[in-house]
């Protein structure tokens, strides 16, 4: 797939050939690149609604998304560092955090740029629903002040749990998504 993950797919059963169609039952597992250990999930069978008005149908199970999440988590894809250089339009400084958290204001009288380290602390959980899917991510964020000599000083760490719903729709032959933060 990319530098972090690979997909292995194989037939679950022999193809079923009928007059109007062929049914291929593939099982796809996503692994961290170069690490083919079995993920801690069990694939559950699922059925695709019987429709015949399109030429091609694709269905992805919760298992596919779970193994994808596990592979990217294992590869460290959910660990992100945001610095002033990588995200200049935010312009976050200790002054902003000092107005919210009084202890930061006491520590940092002079405004310094900050660096944010975001990391998932557990494998994100992906659940499929009838018209959307949800993603629950547990993580932590550590905030650092970047001092004039380019060293960093930890200001605070906070734990984060985010639960979002994502609905996909096709508009004008384009796949569009809408994101809703549940909590």
What's the layout of helices and strands?
Layout: E1 5-11, E2 16-17, E3 22-23, E4 26-32, H1 62-74, E5 79-82, H2 94-100, H3 102-107, E6 114-120, E7 125-128, E8 133-146, E9 152-171, E10 174-181
Antiparallel strand pairs: 1-4, 2-3, 5-6, 6-8, 7-8, 8-9, 9-10
Fold and architecture overview:
The chain is mainly beta and 183 residues long. It has two domains: 1-76, no CATH class; 78-182, Bactericidal permeability-increasing protein, domain 2 (Super Roll). The chain is built from three helices and ten strands, in the order ββββαβααβββββ. The protein has helices at residues 62-74, 94-100, 102-107; strands spanning 5-11, 16-17, 22-23, 26-32, 79-82, 114-120, 125-128, 133-146, 152-171, 174-181. Strands 5, 6, 7, 8, 9 and 10 form a six-stranded antiparallel sheet that branches. Strand 8 and strand 9 (152-171) form a beta hairpin. The mean pLDDT is 82.
Précis, in short:
This protein is mainly β and 183 residues long.
**How many strands?**
10
The top-level CATH class of the largest domain is Alpha Beta
What amount of the residues lies in strands? 35-45%
CATH domain fold name of the largest domain:
Bactericidal permeability-increasing protein, domain 2
The CATH superfamily label of the largest domain reads: Bactericidal permeability-increasing protein, domain 2
Alpha carbon gyration radius: 22 Å
């Amino acid at each position: 797939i990319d530098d972090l993950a690979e997909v292995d797919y194989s037939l679950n059963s022999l193809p079923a050939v009928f007059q109007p169609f062929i049914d291929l039952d593939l099982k796809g597992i996503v692994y961290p690149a170069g690490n083919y250990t079995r993920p801690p999930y069990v694939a559950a069978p699922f059925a695709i609604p019987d429709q015949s008005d399109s030429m091609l149908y694709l269905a992805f199970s919760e298992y596919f998304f779970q193994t994808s999440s596990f592979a990217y988590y294992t590869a460290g894809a959910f660990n992100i560092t945001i610095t002033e250089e990588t995200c200049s339009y935010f312009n976050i400084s200790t002054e902003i955090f000092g107005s919210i958290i009084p202890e930061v204001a006491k520590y940092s009288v002079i405004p310094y740029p900050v660096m944010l380290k975001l990391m998932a602390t557990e494998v994100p959980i992906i659940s499929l629903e009838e018209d959307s899917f949800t993603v629950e991510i547990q993580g932590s964020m550590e905030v650092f002040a970047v001092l004039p000599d380019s060293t960093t000083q930890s200001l605070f760490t906070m734990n984060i749990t985010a639960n979002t719903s994502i609905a996909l729709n096709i508009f004008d032959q384009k796949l569009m998504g809408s994101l809703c933060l549940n909590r």
